Amino acid sequence: MWPDRRLIDLVKTELPIVQAPMAGAMDAELVIAASQGGALGSLPCAALSVEKIREQMGDIGARAAGPINLNFFCHPALEDEPSRQGHWLERLAPYYASLGLDPRAATAATGRTPFDAASLDLVLELKPAVVSFHFGLPDAVMTGRLKAAGIVVMSSATTVAEAVWLERHGVDAVIAQGAEAGGHRGSFLAGSVAAQPGTFALVPQVVDAVRVPVIAAGGIADGRGIAAAFALGAAGVQIGTAYLRCPEAKISAPFRAALGTAADDSTVITNVMSGRPARGIYNKIMRELGPMSADAPAFPHAAKALAPLRAAAEARGSSDFSALWAGQSVALTRAMPAADLTRSLAAAGRKRLEELAR
Ligand SMILES: Cc1cc2nc3c(=O)[nH]c(=O)nc-3n(C[C@H](O)[C@H](O)[C@H](O)COP(=O)(O)O)c2cc1C
Known about the structure:
8-stranded parallel sheet
């Protein structure tokens, strides 16, 4: 039924669809529902403790029979710089005042930690079918141990050079993430964010450059996008934004409302929310401080000073300070349960491929 079965054969799912891991926007419930629909369910672990990951995998194991992907970040663990953080807080001071907050309420925890020795031990204990990474790969010894345990390793590439680097460092599949994608760019070698190719340009060039299966990500939200990805040589798709509309996604009411009214030109790439470039729906804080700002502390430290503003604003029904991560196809998405969404995306993709083959 599918023109390319390499991803299905590699990860042993029913469908060549990866439900994108989305840190801060979902938990086991979405993983279970997407997996029940036939996709590769992915649990984002970047913001979870070892105990929490173990607990979530317990829930998933009890309710989903399919293969599961555990996703981690591999960003360099940079120290926060007090002078930059102080300057950032000064820039945010008027917003603290307008919400009646004390700047000393800024949180100390970043909430985003890179893959480390404890993560490796946990993964080797839990033995998921797949582990995927964002922002590169862990060191060669760690990657080797994952592979030696029979775990499929994947990572995001935003350029051909990153895809080639990932293949050389042992990945079993490359996720080619185009500029349309919601959330953080997985970039780890690339220079300017403004140079990131779009999915339509990136996927065929990555397909030409590597031998491993390529998963297209970014702006894919319906059957036409899935068919296009296969036409460009992809062996599967990774879909994020469309799953945010599912009742199983764990997002705030203001975020859900913003997704429902966004248009094709509603998103921008910004670094003000976290310190790294990510695509989200343009809101007050991105507009007034960015969308790109040289003042933002390094990832993920920029988020600390925003956390109290976000919480206070969301409690008042406002998304002015929220990281509204979403891709450029947000307006193509429909609110429906994740298992149904997975099946309907697959059916629409197959139908479009059949129509084109006639
Ligand atoms: C809300 C949100 C959070 C995300 N968090 C992660 C993450 O934790 N790990 C990751 O590898 N990718 C993350 N991504 C990026 C996705 O893996 C994927 O590249 C992207 O969603 C694809 O584009 P689309 O949103 O247009 O479907 C996130 C995307 C969104 C929208």
